[in-house]
Amino acid sequence: MAVTPPQRAPQTVPPARTAAPVMMFVGDSFTVGSGPVPPWRTYASESARLLGWQPVIAGAGGTGYLNKGKVGRTFRRSFEEELAWRPPPDVLVISGGHNDQRWSTTQVGRAAAELLAEVRHRWPVTRVFVIGPIWLEDTPSKAYRVRDALAEAAEAAGVPFLDPMRKRWVTDRPSETVLPDGVHPTLAGHERIAAWLAAELL
Question: Which UniProt keywords apply (predicted)?
């Protein structure tokens, strides 16, 4: 009598894992961290965490579109040295302007336009966002003019401009959101900025 071979259970193929989107940043101390806030706890890292994306953070404290800070490089140089040689990300966020007040707004706007043109040339399909200067309190009048110059450069490049100066970041207890230097966010302050940015990027 013929023996029927046992039937094998059909094998299930696990679904292919989809790589998380990559979000790169170029920025200043607000982006890379300052004081007790390390790079992996800044608003940049936290916004990527909220979105389930992979962050790559470039830049340095004191830098800007024209200001070289102690590291001796502008945002454009940070982009070229730290990011441009990598595969194109899904999203690039350029955040800053806080340190560019000693230049004319025309110079700042021109530097921003040149950086955006280089980014578009290298990465034509990457979504790019420009974030204006971050001021938590005591915002000087020049900062608004720098912001406007950056907004104009972004608009001319067809890039969305996000304006943190339109938001109120300091709570009724300032020490909760602002470090003792009166400039940079605490961990809680970074989390507030991250929640705003993540919502803007969705």
Answer: Hydrolase
Q: How far is CA 30 from CA 62, 156, 181, 183, in A?
A: 9, 25, 13, 9
The pTM of the full predicted model, rounded to 2 decimals, is 0.90
Q: Could you state, in order of their start, the residue ranges of all structural domains in the chain? A: 22-201
Which pLDDT tens digit goes with each residue over 57-87? 999 999 999 999 999 999 999 999 999 999 9
CB atoms within 10 A of CB 134: 27
Alpha-carbon distance of 157 to 113, in angstroms, equals 7
- Strands 22-27 and 91-95: what pairing? parallel
For 145-181, the pLDDT digits (tens) are 999 999 999 999 999 999 999 999 988 888 999 999 9
Q: Tokens representing 55?
A: 């962050």
Does the annotation mark 181 as catalytic?
yes
Task: Please tell me which residue in 45, 78, 184, 190 is annotated as part of the active site.
Answer: 184
184 is catalytic: yes
Q: How far apart are CA 128 and CA 170, in angstroms?
A: 27
Residue 95 phi, psi (nearest 5): -130, 120
98 belongs to the catalytic site: no
